[in-house]
């Protein structure tokens, strides 16, 4: 048993470093950019006048449909549509690119709701006070609203990132040789599926535990100024 674990461990770690971790980090980064833009569009109500307002409302409707669609369908189905479905209309993507698009869009939809809720949680008086001091809307967002919203959004976004790391195992279904698929390949060779699946589960658990520790550290750091103010 120990020999099987030690012999398979390098392949699993290599798959983690080559696919699981990069796919998680890049998808989360892109997803957060999407989430932030979507949250702003769905939260702000700029005055564009009679001409721009209908276009803004159409944009918000499209954005709302995107969020609804990705939050209402399974991630696995989304990956299959992107990788196996799009080629039927002439769009063929490499497995890693397809997974990156699927995970990023899914994370953007879920993350946007978290960020939107965090933005709405900031007291409206903060906006009014900033406008009174002569700050524009972008300046108010950057200097006052976003820092407070990020502190509120940090715990749920961290949880979503940890969930994304585990969800990367679904990339095996579109032929990406990440950790789970590699464990399946090794299990097919040594006929020890239970041992291999327990081993890959342990690696996921270790990785997510490290992320949990980092999450608690970031939450503690982000709350330091509040404790200082209270003192």
Automatic annotation (TrEMBL):
Its main location: membrane. The keyword Cell membrane applies. GO terms for cellular component: ATP-binding cassette (ABC) transporter complex. It is a multi-pass membrane protein. It holds the Pfam family BPD_transp_1. InterPro entries: AA_ABC_transptr_permease_3TM, ArtM/GltK/GlnP/TcyL/YhdX-like, MetI-like, MetI-like_sf. It is found in: Cell membrane. GO terms for molecular function: L-cystine transmembrane transporter activity. Residues 17-215 form the ABC transmembrane type-1 domain. Keywords: Amino-acid transport, Cell membrane, Membrane, Transmembrane, Transmembrane helix, Transport. The chain crosses the membrane at residues 21-41, 53-70, 77-103, 194-214. NCBIfam families: HEQRo_perm_3TM (TIGR01726). Belongs to the binding-protein-dependent transport system permease family. This is Amino acid ABC transporter permease.
